[in-house]
From TrEMBL:
MF term (GO), any: monoatomic cation transmembrane transporter activity
Name of this chain's protein: Trk system potassium uptake protein TrkA
Highest taxon of source: Bacteria
Domain RCK C-terminal residue range list: 138-217
Pfam families: TrkA_N
Organism taxonomic ancestry: Bacteria, Bacillati, Actinomycetota, Actinomycetes, Micrococcales
RCK N-terminal domain: residues covered: 1-119
Length: 223
């Protein structure tokens, strides 16, 4: 069980809170308006914190210091980015994601290494994939036999700058495409994994746990 902090208790935040709680995790959800918590179902056991999501004291009330991940999904781009930066830079939360309405801003923050989900393409599933990496292995596509899965991979920052071929060889996967600055691209022989990239690869379903373990750690140092 891990602890997750969500900023924004709109339809988006409530959906995430319920999904995470159903998966057995602990959840704290922050909103400036106490009435927003009415969107949470009866029996929700997570922590409800009234306050500004980028305020450090408010985040501490939500137990951000022990959070595995932080998702900022309020209706304001500036608030979401500021809160995400505080979570990452002040409290060193490794897994963060911000919901962004402005595609131009989303590209800028992707370059800064802050995962974003554009509102026009938003879904609770996309956010969960960025803060709960193990959920991504369910995949976007499964070929007819069920053996191969096309899925979004979560990589340790240590892989930044390494060739796509290094990723394929280490994890025994085939990279199908990358999403870079919101656009898909086919990797070439010299393509390297860059900060902010999303990697989509074909994985043997029975090897998914091994793939996740290999890529969640930095690559072996070259001798």
């Amino acid at each position: 069980m891990a602890h997750f902090v969500i900023m924004g208790c709109g339809r988006v935040g409530a959906t995430l809170a319920h999904a995470l709680e159903d998966s057995g995790h602990s959840v704290a959800i922050i909103d400036q308006d106490e009435r927003a918590f009415r969107r949470l179902r009866t029996g929700f056991t997570g922590r409800k914190v009234t306050g500004v999501g980028f305020d450090q004291d408010t985040l501490k009330q939500a137990d951000i210091e022990n959070a595995y991940a932080f998702a900022a999904v309020s209706s304001g781009d500036n608030s979401n980015i500021l809160a995400t930066r505080v979570a990452r830079e002040t409290f060193h939360v490794e897994h963060v994601v911000a919901r962004i309405y402005d595609p131009g801003r989303a590209e800028i923050y992707q370059r800064l290494g802050i995962p974003t989900v554009a509102a026009v393409r938003w879904s609770a599933d996309q956010v969960l994939r960025r803060i709960l990496p193990e959920s991504a292995i369910k995949g976007d596509f499964r070929e007819p036999s069920g053996r191969l899965i096309l899925t979004e991979l979560s990589l340790h920052p240590g892989w930044i700058g390494r060739h796509v071929l290094d990723i394929e060889n280490a994890a025994q996967v085939r990279v199908a495409y990358l999403t870079r600055f919101g656009e898909g691209m086919l990797p070439g022989p010299d393509t390297s994994y860059q900060q902010g990239d999303t990697v989509h690869a074909m994985v043997v379903g029975t090897q998914s746990a091994d793939v996740m373990h290999i890529l969640s750690t930095p690559p072996a140092k070259e001798s």
